[in-house]
Records
---
Amino acid sequence: LLQPKLRLADGHTMPQLGFGVYKLANQATMNTAIAAANRSGYHLFDTAQAYGNEAILGTAFKELAIPRTELFITTKVAEVNQGYDNTLRSVERSLKLLQTDYLDLLLVHWPIHSQFFETWRAFERLKAEKIVRSIGVSNYHQTHLDYLATRANEQPVVNQIENHPYLSQEPLLAYDRKQQIVSQAWSPLGRGVVLQDPVLAKIASQHQRSVAQIILRWHIQRGLAIIPKSQNPQRISENAAIFDFKLDADEMTAIARLNRRQRTGADPEVVYEIE
Ligand code: NAD
């Protein structure tokens, strides 16, 4: 099945569905997961310097002989690597670990107030040098985006944020849209917490689909990019089988009503500072 792509403001395209590799920590587990994802039609793989698994991800791509042109690789600059020189050095290291000479998408992992403009200047340089095709941010709120909007030469084309039925963040999504930024949902399944919800269970049984598929389909119909994670080949394939059914307007509304501003991760309003 052909996977949909989203057009980014810089002219590149990005698969709407991707695979997150957070916590995949050894080579055998990584290989099994990436092989399953590759078979199921995922092209986008989302890692981060902070996950400590760029090397095993790079090795998995090589061992499975997946052509680079079929891959869309995202990594993120860790908090400890922010700043102009640190960013450049750390991206060089990420490229080595991932065994590639370019990245499809590079994200600032978290907005560290004292550092993020210098980090962003390094991102602009990496893009100009074509080491990175697209540049974006993660966990940015409107205030952080506004800062870049008024000062930066290049604008982020992706904002990767926590998003699931218990944290739908509609105002931030609207702001991203206004700025021509694609919103990409991390923890799209709420790390499992949302899967027990009775409203979702009812919709799932009506469609004879799993709750995970209903949630992922809801994201797709809202135009978000998603990067669900699983180690289980059957679930990896299930999470990609979401392009052959539709939720109706009432179902979309019922899911939207589940929002309770419940985070699984940290709140970006907390100012991150390096010690
Ligand atoms: P997720 O919402 O994708 O949930 C993953 C968990 O849900 C799995 O561990 C599994 O237990 C369960 N699951 C997955 N598929 C299932 C299915 N079909 N049926 C039942 N249970 C299922 O949460 P996540 O791993 O936190 O997020 C996904 C990715 O987002 C990460 O791997 C990472 O790449 C990215 N991420 C980014 C940030 C950031 O700050 N930018 C933060 C967290 C995660």
---
Amino acid sequence: ENHMQEKLPLRDKRVVITAGPTYEAIDPVRFIGNHSSGTMGAELALRAADLGAAVDLILGPSALKVQHELVTVHNVVSGDDMYEAVHKVYEQCDIAIASAAVADYKPAHVAEEKIKKNDDTFTIHLVKTKDILASMGEKKKGQFLVGFALETQNEEENALKKLKKKNLDAIVLNSLRDKGAGFKTKTNKITFIDKDGSITPYDLKSKKEVAEDIFDQILIKTT
Ligand code: CTP
Ligand code: CA
């Protein structure tokens, strides 16, 4: 054992992170998805690992390669897959962060064959997906649970509502108001809100730096 390792604040801790989009199949060749790149979640995973934690990164379809001795990547496709993968590791973890952009709805039925073009209009019946983060909140036994919120109106109020509803310890409000924040960018502008309602706004910065800010907050609240 070297001395560096002993000083790391998340040594002996397990961290679970969800990241990336989900793909909800329509037929064998089509899906409903979104533009999430998974970058924010990957940066969170690397930061947690650099702090000494053993990390399970549950990653939806993404081109990202996340390489760190302490990070195990679990590649998943759909929201249902992500739910299963999360609950295999969630009970044993100390800190969990949900940064995935999980599809809110999925096709009620997946066609077995490629759907042929026929009428001028075509309707896909959608049903709600499982709320993975809410299920983590329900099963919480001492884990420090952090969610993300993407809001376009009454941002802080809605984020705090989400925190309460899903039984979270903190929520990271992702502001889309600033150009340069969000899905297709290398930067994010966040506000960290904890369950006591204390609100910390941050400047627009790289997702790597945002990951550092988020773990600084988590460390204050857990140690
Ligand atoms: N989330 C999840 N499973 C879902 C939907 C959302 O785990 N099926 C998580 C996201 O990873 C995020 C948080 O819940 O951490 C909030 O996601 P968001 O899309 O902002 O909120 P929703 O609860 O889906 O509500 P809405 O989209 O209507 O605002
Ligand atoms: Ca949603």
